[in-house]
Structure formats: C-alpha cells, structure tokens
Specification:
Helices cover about 55% and strands about 5% of the residues. Helix 1 packs antiparallel against helix 3, helix 1 runs parallel beside helix 8 and helix 3 packs parallel to helix 7. The chain starts with a helix and ends with a helix. The protein has a two-stranded antiparallel ribbon with strand order 1-2. With about 210 residues, the protein is mainly α.
Length: about 210
C-alpha cells in the first residue's frame, strides 16, 4: 500500500469511530467546552476539538508503521530510527505486529487512567489516544491484503498472513496461468477498489448506526 491509501484508511477509521462515539454518547460524555477553561468571546462546538484531535492522530498513525522503511514518508522524516528498525527487523516487522499495537494501547491506557492531569488534558489525550490506535490498526489491516502480508500472530506464529482479493489470469506461451491477486497501492485500478471499499464501509456503518 502507498502513503495515500493508508491515509485514506486512517480517515475511514476515524470516521467510523466518530459515528460510534456519537451513537454511544461518548462524544457527549467526553466533549470539550472551552468556556470552562478560557475566557474568549467565541467558543467552538464541544465536539470540535475532540474530533480534530481524533482525525489528526488517526491520520498520523495510519502511516506511522512504515517508519521501518527508509524511503517511506515517515521513514524519511526519522531517518536514523527508520534505518535502525529496517536493519534489525526489516520492513513490515515489529512496527506491523498487532502485539506492538496492543502494547502501545496498554501504555496509553495506563497513562490515561493513572497519571494525574487536568480535566481538559484528560479529555484531549483520550481522543488523541483513540485516534492513534484506530489509525495504526487501519494500517495493519490494509497490509494484510498486500502480497507481502504481515506476521499477524507474532510471536506465537511467525508466518506472515496475507489475504488475496481475487484471481489474476495471465497467458504464458500457449497456456493460461491463474494466480492469486493482492492489492497494490501503486496500481490505479487497485486505488479505485480501495476507495470503493472504504466508502462502502463508511456507508454500511452509517446505516448500522442509524445515520442513513
């Protein structure tokens, strides 16, 4: 998958999370009313800042796992760390393991529950943490449909899991060869498929949550 495909995945993940949070009342429970903390003439809607934090964190995290590849966008921004991760774990290594995301989630959960902080920071961090986790998860899920796959069950099973999205039929000499087809972010047709899938998921969730 390329950079833009993963960013689309991050936007999709944040959109679904927003609908879920609104439907369950979480947006109301953890809204952020600035008039409680600062004295300014105009105050944004209580949902505004939480949603900005959610989408920003999701967009950032949706491409972050590729920091283990030096030529990726996050890899170029953090060259030293990227080269270290790539040389020790390879591309789609430790940064793509679900257990890594679980560890990050546990650390975030500990900080949010047990580290003393002001109310506004408590609410702000919640939406940043949620956005980060769903964006990161979207990257891992998309890479399952790539031909390289990911080690989904590491460290219990090191073999990479990959899910085909169809069949590819090619002709070689006088015979036809049928092989499994995987999504490629660099392919225009695949980009179209990814966009359709993301839009379909959002619409399905919107229907499920009662928005349509």
């Amino acid at each position: 998958m390329n950079y833009q495909c993963h960013r689309l995945g991050g936007i999709t993940a944040a959109t679904i999370t927003t609908m879920y949070a609104y439907q369950t009342g979480m947006l109301d429970k953890y809204s952020l009313c600035l008039d409680k903390y600062v004295d300014i003439p105009i105050h944004p809607h209580p949902y505004t800042i939480p949603l900005i934090l959610l989408f920003t964190a999701s967009l950032y995290a949706s491409t972050l796992p590729d920091i283990d590849h030096p030529i990726s966008v996050p890899g170029r921004k953090h060259r030293g760390l990227s080269e270290y991760l790539n040389s020790h774990f390879g591309h789609r290594g430790i940064t793509h393991y679900p257990i890594t995301l679980l560890f990050i989630g546990l650390v975030m959960g500990f900080i949010w529950h047990y580290v003393p902080m002001s109310d506004w920071l408590h609410v702000g961090l919640l939406w940043i943490f949620i956005g980060f986790l769903v964006g990161y998860l979207s990257h891992i899920l998309l890479d399952i449909f790539n031909s390289a796959g990911i080690a989904l069950f590491y460290p219990f099973w090191k073999r990479r899991v990959k899910i085909p999205t169809g069949l590819r039929v090619t002709k070689k000499r006088k015979s036809w060869i049928v092989s499994l087809r995987y999504l490629k972010g660099s392919d225009v047709f695949d980009n179209f498929i990814i966009v359709c899938i993301m839009v379909g998921i959002v619409l399905l969730c919107a229907y499920q949550f009662g928005f349509l």
